[in-house]
Amino acid sequence: MCTYELEGAQLYSIRWYRNMIEFYRYVPKESPATKVFPVAEIKVDVAASDQNRVVLTEVDRTLTGEYQCEVSADAPLFHTDIKAAEMVVVEPPLLSPNVTADRVSYVGGDHIRVNCSSPPSLPAANITWFVNEQMVPGFTANHVFNFSNGFASSLATLELEATALSPVPTLMIRCEASIFDIWKATSHTIVLRERSANPASALGRSFTGAATVTCLPTIVMLLLQILLQFLMQNYTETSIR
């Protein structure tokens, strides 16, 4: 898009450039008003383009770069101004981001570490964290891994300190990957459940039950010793006779 204000003057021409090479021109006094110049990889949709916009088709990542719009007023002043802007062609990931955690449950005071990875894309995706559907504010730890083909993947790590006696004894964690405002995808949600800090209580075993389990082998050993002594005594008496 190219917006401008001529302050009462008539438009003479609109010229579009990529890296200062002209590829599209609009001159309202000429017939036809539009003219396309051959520039590698650039294909203009003439029917959809006019004095305010130029529409490109079959766009690929080679068209990422700087584009310039030059506006010229008509006689007698022929005032001309040119402005530039960067266009980035995005190739989004083929898959959604993936989230993994270093544990499946926690107790109060635990240090929890969660990773989120976004598959290769162009450019690398930004990652946002959500805990119990609340966005984690101010999170910027996003590591980018570049590949030889120009693509890049993102990896972000979230570290949490679990709160003891949480009013909601679960942590629902997910991540969201986005590229500008044209692509967004979310990971699956992992659920970490709070567990008791006392394993015996968690297993539901009482003190009495634990004592019974502990004493039972001792009672069995005593019975075996008594039986062995009885057998030895019988064997000795038989041998003497």
What are the segments in which pLDDT stays under 50 over at least 5 consecutive residues? 199-215, 235-241
Question: How many helices?
Answer: 2
Name of the top-level CATH class of the largest domain:
Mainly Beta
**Secondary-structure-derived class:** alpha+beta
For the structure shown, list the relevant keywords:
single chain, 241 residues, alpha+beta, Immunoglobulin-like, 2 domains, six-stranded mixed sheet, five-stranded antiparallel sheet, 15 strands, 16% helix, rod-shaped
Question: What does this protein look like?
Answer:
The protein is α+β, with helices and mostly antiparallel strands. Helices cover 16% and strands 38% of the residues. It has two domains: 10-87, no CATH class; 98-197, Immunoglobulin-like (Sandwich). It is built from two helices and 15 strands.
Question: How is the topology of this model organized?
Answer:
Blueprint: E1 11-18, E2 21-26, E3 34-36, E4 65-73, E5 80-87, E6 98-101, E7 105-106, E8 111-121, E9 126-131, E10 134-135, E11 143-146, E12 152-161, E13 170-179, E14 183-186, E15 190-194, H1 199-202, H2 207-240
Parallel strand pairs: 7-15
Antiparallel strand pairs: 1-2, 1-4, 2-3, 4-5, 6-8, 8-12, 9-10, 9-13, 11-12, 13-14, 13-15
